[in-house]
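User: Predict structure, ligand zinc ion.
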Amino acid sequence: MHSLSLLLACVVATGGLARTATAQPARFLVPERAPGARWLKGNTHAHTTNSDGDTAPDEVARWYKSRKYDFLVLSDHNVFTDPATLASLMDSTFLLIPGEEVTTAFQKAAVHVNALAITRVIAAPRDSTLLGTVQKTVDAIRADHAVPHINHPNFLWSIDTATLFRVKNDRLLEIFNGHPTVHNIGGGDWPGMEDAWDALLTRGKKIYGIAVDDAHHFQGEFAKARANPGRGWVVVRARSRDTREIVTALDEGRFYASTGPVIDAITVTESELSVTITRTGDFKYTTQFVGADGEILATDKSLTPSYRLRGPETYVRVRVVDSSGATAWLQPVFTTRYRERPTP
Ligand SMILES: [Zn+2]
Ligand SMILES: [Zn+2]
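Assistant: Predicted complex:
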């Protein structure tokens, strides 16, 4: 391009951006109201003796049911632990969602993707690249009209952020996994899962963060170094305790993830995002509102934290940390300025 026309193009582009910024400050995209919806707590990642867990499926299911979980996914490695065999445990208070941890690899990288609401076992694919391996796994799950979530990318330092960015048709990513060797918070030259999440969101990949147990050990001592249950879960906004209703709500981001804090309400208007925290005992809470690139936009120490849009935000998400260090991650609320990356 000729230097003068390049200069002109820059001036025009800058002028256009400036006009857009002043004329159209961000507004939150207000989610549709869902009358009759309530919160349902569940874990989407648990193993049994059908793969490498230490406890039989019925006992694993009972562990969760007796602790008032509303739903559970038994996700054995490349095995379908069919809830139909556990029908006597399911009632109006507890649902087993059919699942599998589709488990494959590329060279030394572990590629594990959970499949929620499967109808049959999904064969683990192979490919000649890491991206291809992840993509084929996601595609195989979608082909069964099941919902994929990409598991513990930092396990064996397997799936980097650039690869996660290029995967298509996935909406769910484990940002907390209760297994002791999955490196949730990263280290050295490798980002933690929350930083990776913001990097993906900032570049235009709409993806939601989930917390899971990845429980293997229900017997013997419960200890930090063991993969015990009860560490991470999701709380889904759903109208009924129904498999399709719950997995669709997950896939569309109508939930929060937690390792402790309980959220009573999330309210979004065009200009404000507000949250009501349910207090546990005498716990105290600190809420951070997080924007693009993981920037902390505001901190609120009340039980009803709120954030008013200033104008340049593309998304805002909420992190609530309680006085024990446990965390709740709310899903990003996108604004009119958010640009989802084009699907190649
Ligand atoms: Zn795994
Ligand atoms: Zn697992």
